[in-house]
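Hi there,

I know you've been waiting on this one. I reran it after we fixed the sequence typo, so this is the corrected version. Both the input and the resulting structure follow.
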Amino acid sequence: MIRRQLLGRTMALAVAAGCAASSFAADAFPSRPVTLVVPFAPGGNLDVVARTIAPALEKAIGQSVIVDNRAGAGGAIGAGFVARAEADGQTLLVTTPNAVGVLPQMTKTTYRLASFQPVGQMATTPLVVMVRKQSPFTDIAALLAEARAKPGRISVAHSGPGTTNHIAIFQLEDAAKIDMNVIAYKGSGPGLVDLIGGQVDSMVDQLSSSTTHIQSGALRPLAVMSRERDPTLPDVPTLREAGLAGFEATTASGLLAPAGTPQATVELINAALRKALADPAVAARLVQLGSPARPSSPAEWSAQLQAEEKRAVALAAAGKLKSD
């Protein structure tokens, strides 16, 4: 009887100690600078959004926030790095649903969606079809007509395999009944450089990473892929207006932590992210970039990620989802 009582007390103390340790770990966050890993090259949509939010996130968290670009393999290198990181909230992935839900269905990766803990959505960004200013294509109808007349001849760039941009090109080819020469880059930045330089004919990219080049006149937007025209490009038609009924493609971005990160830490980061997105200067800048803030709870962001993964699994099973 005495031994049983002692064993019970020992187990109770062990459980209490474990809970206290877990609580202390969550309370200790952040114990050092927080790293936002962007799995693409500088200058792309995720990079621009991350760097816009980072200063306000620093204030909300009370610790330095570092943006670390780890480009390659369509986002798999950066995502894999975060999946292997310590589950303490100090290393976070800046991502779209595609990088963690679609890419693993297209190629072998070291992670799956289940390798991460959703923290919250940050923004939603329209996609835009662009050409350089010297291009002979003055409108989207001319580009689509040339692509139909010359299958596989008109090149179109995107930021990497499995990205929203890549999937949107698949959607465009299917909806417009065209076949394009699809070229993958390690992020939007390098693709935009080649587009401006004339190495590719066109590109599908997020408005946030392209808006500076559009405003400077270096690039000519032909159509936006969102349901409605974008207020920052009021004169640019949608693909729906160009005759592609029901077409819609946008990019959601958000934060993920490694699987196993304490829920208390996740909630703390989510609260800090919401505060950063509510900062008037940040909100205004994101609108100016064409990537308005869209805060969410961890559960809402998780549902969106799971829905994207489910669609990707179905596409892969049908043989429609494949890399270039």
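Quick highlight: Residues 1-26 have pLDDT under 50 and may be disordered.

Best,
R. S.
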